[in-house]
Write a sequence for this structure.
């Protein structure tokens, strides 16, 4: 979307009604493109004015919730069987809708147990949604703990930076009253500690492990020691697949931004052109009636 058109499109309220109409029809050929449109609205830039870009992002997130589109996304997430590529775009749309939006995080908190269940089944795309629901949200992190969320972090999953980043988000957002959940997950941190001590390659996984261990130390106190017990951490340095997984850095999903906005997705660009045409047509029809 062209920066000069961002505000016009994002604030065109009939657009959200059209999106809701498509979502309520259930899975269809238009569904995937609609998910991409939702994420693109949230990620749209407004030139070099960062404060205006942030304001438009918040506006789009609020409109997606108020219009009922967020409810429709949640329904599709919980009840629909989607093709893999469509499922990925749904997870990204939900992730962007909730990113740094407390109201949307609250609205979607019921998805946390389902996200955990699907992450256990190696559905890595769902981690994007889970991460967005947990960032800077103490109540959702409490729900995460109560839903046995720490079971998501296994030796295999911790070999990927996206899981380590999510684990760090959980620890940093944990209130002191809930730190027992971290203390009782000793085996996770034993593996991380061993990787840090034995990996001399300085891989991204090892660097994230250092960050996670530091966050744990801050939460539990300097006197808290890891109780070393026999833990199976074989093949600890087998990090070949790290590049196949999305790394979520500092609670953001900017890597997806390029895919949605900058990769020249012809279908999305055509859609925005149609939206702009409809906006101007709608305004032209409205102006004469306002004069009479």
């Amino acid at each position: 979307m062209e920066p000069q058109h961002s505000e016009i499109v994002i604030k065109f309220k009939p657009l959200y009604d059209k999106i809701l109409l498509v979502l309520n029809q259930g899975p269809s050929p238009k569904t995937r493109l609609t998910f991409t449109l939702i994420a693109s609205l949230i990620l749209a830039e407004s030139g070099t004015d960062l404060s205006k870009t942030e304001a438009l992002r918040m506006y789009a997130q609020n409109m997606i919730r108020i219009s009922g589109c967020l409810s429709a996304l949640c329904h599709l997430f919980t009840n629909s069987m989607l093709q893999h590529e469509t499922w990925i775009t749904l997870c990204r749309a939900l992730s962007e809708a909730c990113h740094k939006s407390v109201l949307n995080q609250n609205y979607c908190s019921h998805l946390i147990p389902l996200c955990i269940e699907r992450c256990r089944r190696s559905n890595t795309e769902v981690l994007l949604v889970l991460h967005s629901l947990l960032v800077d949200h103490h109540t959702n992190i409490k729900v995460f703990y109560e839903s046995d969320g720490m079971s998501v972090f296994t030796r295999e999953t911790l070999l990927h930076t996206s899981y380590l980043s999510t684990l760090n988000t959980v620890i940093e957002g944990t209130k002191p009253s809930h730190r027992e959940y971290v203390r009782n997950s000793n085996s996770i941190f034993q593996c991380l500690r061993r990787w840090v001590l034995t990996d001399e390659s300085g891989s991204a996984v090892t660097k994230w492990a250092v960050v996670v261990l530091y966050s744990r130390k801050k939460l539990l106190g300097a006197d808290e020691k890891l109780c070393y017990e026999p833990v199976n951490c074989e093949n600890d340095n087998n990090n070949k697949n790290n590049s196949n997984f999305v790394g979520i850095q500092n609670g953001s999903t900017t890597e997806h931004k390029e895919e949605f906005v900058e990769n020249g997705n012809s279908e999305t660009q055509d859609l925005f052109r149609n939206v702009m045409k409809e906006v101007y047509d709608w305004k032209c029809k409205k102006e004469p009636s306002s004069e009479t």
